[in-house]
């Protein structure tokens, strides 16, 4: 009977693992606001930790150093946000002119579509010529739009409210959290756990710092390019296009949107649009295929298939924020697998 019990128990292990994985994924989906906020706070804390450690080495208490660093970073981002808002306000003042151009283009496209439909109807069989397809479009209730907008606004407010406090507590209590985490494991495994935590810390810090540096480079390049072609609102367009360029795969096209929108009131031929698309695509290729491997790739050892699968999965699970967190999450999983005997094959596959 004992042998039979052992066999039954061993056979049920795969099912238990599948159920456990399903529970974890369900939790990640339904508690996305909480999990995403914690992960963003951890990324920022890892990035700011060296500065807090520097303050600690010059005899400044860690809590005070964390507060000073957090306030300084908040002030920097507030200043950059103010510059962007000022430029965006100027753009909104000129929006009626751009909206008029968009309406004109939409009307012209509708006329072309109508002429194509008439041409198709003229060559259709005689029995179908008099038939017109009627589509009833029922607009969504205003209540649904308000509830959807309220949910998105709640997510943004939740992140903005809790994120600074989480970052401060993670920075101020890092030594105690670090020690308590290591002590969760048996004595013979603690050295390997310590090595994994150090590698994760270095990898995440390199990822955030490298992506921030690449974003600044791409924003400056886009800003200079828009200045050179005399595009209006070059700073605003350069900041938005530079950030969108960092989006894997889709960034090459998303970066076109700001200059194309602003260029509607300046360009009357297709040449400038083709030139802007070519240059921004070049920036995207240089950023993700030259700068990213040189600056970040030395710490984030992931193959192209693992990166693509991670972007698809986490983007599907969490949307745009999932695209941002996909690579650091997958790289962290790889580091954990590399330091676990049972999961080393998976770690080698992720980095192959």
Sum this structure up briefly.
With 352 residues, this protein is an all-alpha fold. The chain is built from 15 helices and no strands. 20% of the residues are buried.
Number of helices: 15
Order of helices and strands: HHHHHHHHHHHHHHH
Radius of gyration: 26 Å
Topology, number of strands? 0
Biggest β-sheet description: none
Coarse morphology: globular
Give your account of this protein's structure.
The structure is a single chain. The protein has 352 residues and is an all-alpha fold. It has a domain at 31-116 and 161-184. The protein has 15 helices and no strands.
Protein traits:
mainly alpha, globular, 15 helices, single chain, about 350 residues, disordered N terminus
Write the layout of secondary structure elements.
Elements: H1 2-30, H2 32-57, H3 62-93, H4 95-122, H5 126-129, H6 142-172, H7 174-182, H8 190-228, H9 234-245, H10 251-254, H11 257-263, H12 271-295, H13 304-318, H14 320-338, H15 344-350
Helix pairs in contact: 2-3, 2-6, 2-8, 3-6, 8-9, 8-12, 8-14, 9-11, 13-14, 14-15
